[in-house]
Write a structure and sequence with these properties.
261 residues, 8 helices, single chain, alpha/beta, globular, 8 strands
Length: 261
């Protein structure tokens, strides 16, 4: 990757790209895209970075709302990460969702950008109530790989690594990566683009956790249902989105400040 001219990196996506699970709306969100930008800036200090990601967005909304602004920024590098919100809707078609992603892959690569995406981990081992969506997730990952191959898009295979399903990689809502999880995703992206210093350690498992008994597991499921899944379902029934009224946190290309923001 050249490091003699400013590198223009634009991140497109939903809440994961925005950074939910890594910080908060009071102190500020970080997330994998910010962290990946820091990896890039270590190699290309005059990096310019924009983050168009917005929580609650379906893949089609990411395409409709973010693709044109992203192209206008003339990125050298782009990440496209979306589709999880689609997985959780009553109606889901893996080919249709992947088609929205592929349209972004095609447009960005045609404009000369190098594009990177990810596959999604199967977190049903830590969220048993999510087991019905497992076939959807596997189908979406297969379509993402195929679409990426057609357009020369790089894939960070976070969906194939056992470490990605460790509960410590996930925030309390089990829908967003934790700070550690976001850091691992950023490292996977850095490895995908072959940044100097990338060594695959993001795949390494964490130390084992103590065994949990059935009572604690059931209590954790009920707590998650009340605190996170219930409110999420309520928004869906009202036709509301967690991103309503919000705008992208970093809509224009800017250099990173000294602390990586």
């Amino acid at each position: 990757m050249p490091n003699t001219e400013p590198l223009r990196y634009v991140a497109l996506g939903d809440s994961q790209t925005e950074g939910l699970g890594d910080g908060d709306d009071t102190t500020g969100l970080r997330g994998f895209a910010d962290r990946f930008a820091e990896h890039l800036a270590a190699d290309t200090p005059d990096l310019l970075y924009a983050n168009l990601g917005l929580r609650g967005r379906l893949a089609g909304q990411v395409r409709a709302e973010q693709l044109a602004p992203a192209l206008a920024l003339r990125p050298d590098l782009a990440t496209v990460v979306a589709g999880v919100n689609d997985l959780l809707r009553p109606r889901f078609d893996a080919a249709e969702v992947a088609g929205e992603l592929e349209a972004m892959f095609a447009a960005l690569t045609a404009a000369g950008a190098r594009v990177v995406t990810v596959t999604f981990p199967d977190i049903t081992s830590i969220a048993p109530l999510a087991r019905p969506v497992r076939p959807r997730l596997l189908a979406l990952n297969a379509h993402i790989r195929a679409a990426a191959a057609r357009h020369g898009v790089l894939v960070a295979e976070t969906g194939r690594e056992a470490a990605a399903t460790d509960r410590r990689m996930w925030a309390a809502d089990r829908l967003h990566a934790s700070s550690l999880g976001h850091a691992r995703i950023a490292a996977a992206l850095a490895e995908a683009v072959r940044l100097p210093g990338s060594d695959g350690t993001w795949k390494h498992p964490l130390p084992p956790l103590p065994a949990s008994n059935a009572v604690r597991t059931a209590a954790a499921e009920l707590s998650w249902l009340a605190a996170f899944l219930g409110p999420w379902l309520g928004r869906r029934l009202r036709g509301a989105s967690s991103g309503d009224g919000r705008t992208a946190k970093r809509p224009t290309l800017m250099p990173l400040d000294p602390v990586g923001r």
